[in-house]
Write a structure and sequence with these properties.
single chain, 13 strands, nine-stranded mixed beta sheet, alpha/beta, four-stranded antiparallel beta sheet
Amino acid sequence: MKYLFQLFVLLFFAVTSSAQIKKKSVNKEQPNILIIFPDQLRRYSAGFWSEAPYRQYVIGKPDPVVTPTIDKLAKNGVVVTKGISNFPLCSPYRGMMLSGMYPEQNGIWNNCKKDRDESLKDEVQTITDLFFKAGYNTSYFGKCHWLKNEPLFDEKGNYMGTDKAPGGNYVNDYDTYIPTGVKRHHIEYFYQALKDEHFNPHIYSSDPATIEGKKDGELHLPKIYSPKNEAAKIVDYLKNNRNQRDTSKPFCMVWAMNPPHNPWDEANTDMDMLHTYYDKDKFPKLDSSLVVRKNADLKVANYARHYFANVTSSDAYMGVVIDELEKMGALENTIVIFSSDHGEMLGSHGHEGKNYIEMESMAIPFVVHWPKGLKAGINDIMIGAPDVLPTAMGLAGLEKQIPAAVQGTNLADVLKNPKTTKVQKPKALLLMLGNSRGVLTDRYTLCIEENKTPWDKKEVKDIARTFIYDNIKDPYQLKRIPLNEQPEVAKDLLVQLGQKLKMANDPWYKTKKYSDLIPYPKN
């Protein structure tokens, strides 16, 4: 009897402890997480930047766009004035944001594309893996673009999982379907949109009710503007009318819209928004009243009306989701992180798109809205893609569960209290392209560019150019300063570059590339 009693006591405490752990992991007081990042949205394409007190933090001029939802989040949240895409390209950013690691560790050095090997490593723990383990419902809506593209589909776009017939076909040149299992990284509810055709998204979903009864891996073509379509599916998920999630748990949701990514033509633009806000009655000419940055080539920026229309349209459908959270009473305790994977040149320096170490390409919005946990305001810290994962976990009170392998910085304490001394604010961020490395500080940009294109995989050992921008004196980056013109500034920036390359375990550091120029730290 004595031993039976002891066994009973041990079992009682074991069950009690297990229940406490379970209760803690699904505590309703835990904040929800909602990460929203439209593709290719540059930092200053938001209306609030034209207003006080935000205007003083703008480098150059902000765009004349209408974005009431982003403005609402900004004015009631924390606006980080120096959000940066360390590697301003879709897949490399996503790899860093999802994993908190730099490309050498996460596996993505270029856009995932047919005939390329880039792919997020299966063993990497992502945001969704970690929040799932912490007891959250996990969901993902929209564009993924983190997996190697392989010919594993039939002719109709259905996933076969093999390149043998009826497989052997690609569904898309770039992004591809994320199959169930480890490659989906513990995303429980999955609604993926492929293809750069904004009114013809190619959909795969874990929920048959959203794709006319089809199975996960079977292609669905709803022929609906993708932000509108995704917003409706998110609202349906939040309402939970079909038990899509466990409402006793908080949720971690990622929403990756494709617009305002190109193409920028009538077939891929919300033309109602263009006619309402950006047509010739508002802007008779495509001139500096619409394309405001002084370094822009207006001929190159001839798609500005379409770009801004899709910015405003994406904002409107964001509003549908934010309004639903407010109706549910959930917005107060939802950490909304609004950002983007990279910016958009829009004619600056004669370029369109991204993949440049220029401010228009690298500068991204970063707003954190959490009424219950953060006081609204402005924070001038620099925050990069690898910092998103640890910061989100830190804000949610999960800092002890951040993996040691994460290379980004948990800036949650700085967002809560800008005067804190608990965390050292970043003095510089590492900048990367396929052919370049550099650093960004509060004042300067340093770039070392190799003699090849960003997408060329060939190994080279010569530098095409090195330069510095003074972003205070030269906000439009019109003058590239040779390193020998400001040797002390250059020396300091190069030291910081060497330190950052070591921290990132970058191939340049591992081979001590250009060591005659970059003073790498000793091991």
